[in-house]
Design goal:
This protein is α/β, with parallel strands linked by helices and 441 residues long. Helices cover 47% and strands 16% of the residues. Strands 3-2-1-4-5-6 form a six-stranded parallel β-sheet, sandwiched between helices. Strands 7, 8, 9 and 10 form a four-stranded antiparallel β-sheet that branches.
Length: 441
């Protein structure tokens, strides 16, 4: 058995922290830990989370694992083996602005897609570069597992500064889609070898090979979806917004039945339909603030008041284990297959090699080994290349502090019908993000 691992969660105060730690504890024989650290620049949230994790460790019988919450980077990162990064620069308050500003101009208002995603990207790059800088300084050998959004943008930006970085970018969306489909239509996704390509939150399945059935089940899944809308899987239970999202998958495969799409394509294919269903004054950020976020604050408050019984209530579901699966595949050289966000370098042969794509990859002790795919069709390729160019322009805008490049990126975004609207949104976002964006000239 390998040595024990010291881990740090960057963005420790996040409501996702209990899910990650819980999954790690459930697999402690494959991923033994000797210390857990929570790093967050927001002390209050981090302290709240420390109370919650402390209780979680007690409930699961891991009182001997030391737990530290700190905002001091040296204390947080020195000597760590793994960094799990899930920071949200500007918090949910800025997510709300990312969603609401585009909506004012009749555009999709979403956390990672459209112009909201671009605004978040310019904030997030700076925050993640800081985290990566700390890792370089205090634990240069550590592996960073990053799921800080918007992931393609982050990955592109970090690799420009640190080309040889030990960082794996992962997103749970493909796993959530697969889990939801499997639950709805009676499959076991553990038997699946899915093939998928795209950018993060922007892609398509080409095959879902089922090892026990010995066939590609994607065509039959698409047929089922065409006829019947899905309900949410257990880990999204009671969440109306995810329910809507998964229903839209039926609409998508009725229009484009050749592939199973990532649910996030609804924002690019059907912005008009999405807008019809959106309340401009109460967006997803509001729902999350009043739901997951408030619930977490309440739990911390109860523990602070001395309660210990029945305080912790989370719904992680199975799909949260993917982070542990990736970490152990790396640690124990297991060469398991995941969807990973990684430089293309020919994995999709007819998409520019310097794009950051999301493709199947095997993970072992030396990192990510992407699978080489077949050329993709013009519909997907055209969409992807436009999105890649827009994202590259945005990252250029960040490093060159270029207003012109930012405007080009905003105009090229496929949720935007006019340069005039792009400029209006950009100008309003510059003001809203004054504390967070680089100055654009
Ligand atoms: C999925 C995506 C994440 C995203 C999250 C938003 O898990 O893969 O990248 O952040 O959804 O969920 P929320 O419940 O915060 O709207
Ligand atoms: Mn994601």
């Amino acid at each position: 058995m390998s040595k024990k691992n010291t881990i740090v969660i960057a963005g420790g105060g996040s409501t996702y922290t209990p899910g990650i730690i819980s999954a790690l504890l459930n697999h402690s024989e494959r991923f033994p830990m000797d210390e857990i650290r929570l790093y967050d620049i927001d002390e209050k949230r981090n302290d709240d989370m420390k109370l919650i994790i402390d209780l979680l460790l007690k409930e699961k019988g891991f009182v001997d694992i030391p737990l530290l919450a700190t905002k001091d980077p040296e204390e947080a990162f020195t000597g760590v083996d793994f960094v799990f990064s899930q920071i949200r620069v500007g918090g949910l308050e800025m997510r709300e602005k990312d969603e609401k500003i585009p909506l004012k101009y009749g555009l999709v208002g979403q956390e990672t897609c459209g112009l909201g995603g671009f605004a978040y990207g310019l904030r997030s790059i700076k925050g993640l570069l800081e985290v990566v800088g700390h890792v370089q300084e205090y634990a240069p050998e550590a592996w960073i597992l990053n799921y800080t959004n918007p992931e393609t943008l982050i990955s592109e930006a970090v690799r420009r500064v640190y080309p040889d970085i030990h960082m794996i970018n992962v997103c749970d969306m493909t796993i959530s889609i697969e889990e939801t489909i499997a639950e709805n239509f009676g499959y076991d996704r553990k038997n699946w070898i899915p093939t998928y390509y795209g950018l993060n939150h922007y892609g398509w399945y080409t095959e879902i090979y089922d090892k026990s059935l010995k066939r590609d089940v994607m065509p039959e899944i698409i047929e089922k979806l065409q006829e019947k809308e899905m309900g949410v899987a257990d880990f999204n239970e009671g969440d109306e917004s995810w329910a809507q999202t998964y229903k839209m998958m039926s609409t998508m495969v009725n229009y484009f039945p050749d592939n199973l799409p990532n649910n996030y394509l609804e924002y690019y294919w059907f912005p008009d339909m999405v807008l019809e269903k959106t309340d401009k004054n109460y967006t997803r950020a509001n729902q999350v603030m009043e739901g997951r976020e408030a619930n977490t604050r309440r739990m911390a408050e109860r523990i602070r008041n001395g309660e210990t019984e029945g305080v912790l209530n989370f719904n992680f579901g199975e799909h949260g284990n993917y982070i542990v699966d990736i970490a152990t595949s790396l640690l124990n050289d297991e060469h398991r297959r995941f969807m990973i966000i990684t430089p293309n370098n020919g994995a999709i042969p007819n998409v520019r090699p310097d794009a950051v794509v999301e493709v199947p990859a095997y993970i072992g002790a030396t990192g990510v080994e992407p699978v080489s795919l077949k050329p993709i069709n013009d519909f997907h390729r055209g969409m992807m290349e436009a999105q890649v160019a827009a994202e590259k322009l945005l990252v250029d805008a960040y490093f060159e502090q270029s207003y012109q490049k930012a405007l080009q990126a905003f105009t090229l975004n496929q949720t935007v019908p006019s340069a005039r609207v792009a400029k209006q949104v950009l100008d309003e976002m510059i003001v809203a993000n004054k504390e967070y964006w680089p100055e654009l000239n």
